[in-house]
Amino acid sequence: MTPREAADLLRAARAERRTLPPFTDEHPELDEDWGYAVQALALDDRVAAGDPVVGAKLGLTSRAKQDRMGVDRPIVGFLTRSMLLEPEDVGDALARWAQPRIEPEIAFVTGRPIDRALDAHAAMASVAGVAVAAEILDSRWTGYRFRLPDVVADETSAAGVLVGAEPVAWPADLDLASVRCAVEVDGEVVHRATGAAILGDPWRALGLLSEHLERHGQSLPAGSLVLAGALTDAVPLRSGSRYRLSVEGLGTIAVEPTA
User: Fold this and answer.
1) Burial of 1 by CB count in 10 Å (0-12 exposed, 13-18 middle, 19+ buried)?
2) Domain boundaries along the sequence of the chain
């Protein structure tokens, strides 16, 4: 299976709201580089169709989630303008997703271009603001069963992004590794975590992204959005339920989708 064939199959499945068995079931020889080649083609297609890149995301940044999904390291994907949503948009958007889930994130807003590997100090200096965010996932793989090449090829399951209204200007008196996060569904807390759930410290995610960009000859301009990775497990996103995702010091995102 060529990357072009895979990108076309995934695009068609997404348009038809279908899920698929992982490509690696039939093609176990596929690897991470192949997955990123598929992802790059899909991103080129989106941009050519008038959907520009607005940022990037890290995925599978917690060891527990890596173990659960059967992968052994974080992954990188890109965000395009059509993925940016307001809470009131989510209900209408449900019609285009097959198996949506939502998860809490810490988002960085870059103040400088990123095109090379950054050490910890340079990573912090590249950020203009930090915000609470929520990522909506919609994997092409039935039941979210996949291997590393599959999820990378599927644009890391990215489907939508909501960002808190007012990013906190950086630097700020806030230890991102210690901030507390809670996820409520219909008024009940279903997940709690701290920022340390993201690689021990969310800043490490930005460093990993910068290394990925340098390795692949890619860049992000100033003003880009970077999702550091999920703080907790994702929860199914359903019409009629109420969701509150909060991060201490950064705010809360409330979503109540009605189809």
Assistant:
1) middle
2) 3-178+195-238
Summarize the confidence of residues 39-43 as an average pLDDT: 97
Pairing of strands 168-169, 127-137: antiparallel
Under DSSP, is residue 160 helix (H, G, I), strand (E, B) or coil?
A: strand
Q: Report pTM.
A: 0.95
Residue listed under structure tokens 């989630």? 65
Lookup result for tokens 């695009």: 11
C-alpha 216 chain-centroid distance: 19
Spatial distance between the Cα atoms of 237 and 2, rounded to a whole number of angstroms:
33
Q: What is the pLDDT of residues 173-196, one digit of tens each?
A: 999 999 999 999 999 999 999 999
Asked if pLDDT for residue 44 goes beyond 70, the answer is yes
156 residue type, one letter: T
129's tokens: 């603001």
Question: Which of 246, 229, 236 shows the shortest CA–CA distance to 61?
Answer: 229
pLDDT digits (tens, 9 = 90+) for 76-132: 999 999 999 999 999 999 999 999 999 999 999 999 999 999 998 999 999 999 999
Asked whether 150 and 133 are in contact (CB, 8 A), the reply is: no
- The CATH code of domain 3-178+195-238 reads 3.90.850.10
Phi/psi class of residue 31: alpha, beta or left (left: φ > 0; alpha: ψ in -120 to 50)?
A: beta
CA atoms within 13 A on the CB side of 207: 13
How many Å apart are CA 168 and CA 171, to the nearest integer? 9
Per-position DSSP letters for 96-132, written without gaps between them: G-SS-EEEEEEEEEESS-B-S---HHHHHHTEEEEEE
- Residue 64: pLDDT over 70: no
